[in-house]
Amino acid sequence: MVKNRKLAKAISDLGWREFRTLTEAKCEKYGRKFRVIDRWEPTSQKCSSCGFRAGKKELNVREWTCLNCGTFHDRDVNAAINIRMGC
Fold first, then answer.
1. Mean pLDDT, 10 residues at a time, over the chain (87 residues)?
2. Which of 69, 19, 23, 33 is nearest to 48 (CA)?
3. Chain-centre distance for alpha carbon 77
């Protein structure tokens, strides 16, 4: 059904919404925090140490050093820390 261009977006959105609803319920049941991050939030581009944003980075840049504080970051780990702190 997802191959049908007229229904694909609606089906995909519904699938993600159902996943989110189930995940929220599991978090509530087990006492975990559930955070929704804006789709366009630059979590991997913001320094988790000082909050400095050096601008957009290409996806092939996996590691970078903050120009403000000099902290070395792995892109994925930095994004996870920023999400955990609440951006």
1. 66 80 94 88 91 89 93 94 85
2. 69
3. 11
Residues 6 or more apart in contact with residue 6 via CB below 8 angstroms: none
Short-list 55, 47, 59, CA closest to 85: 47
Helices (H), ranges, the chain = 5-29, 75-85
* Tokens matching residue 49: 């140490």
Residue whose tokens read 């702190």: 85
Tokens of 35: 């955070």
What is the 8-class DSSP label of residue 73?
E
Which residues fall within 8 angstroms of residue 66, CB to CB, at 6 or more apart?
Answer: 47, 49, 50, 52, 54, 72, 73
Q: With contact defined as beta carbons under 8 Å apart, do 2 and 8 qualify?
A: yes
pTM to 2 decimals?
0.69
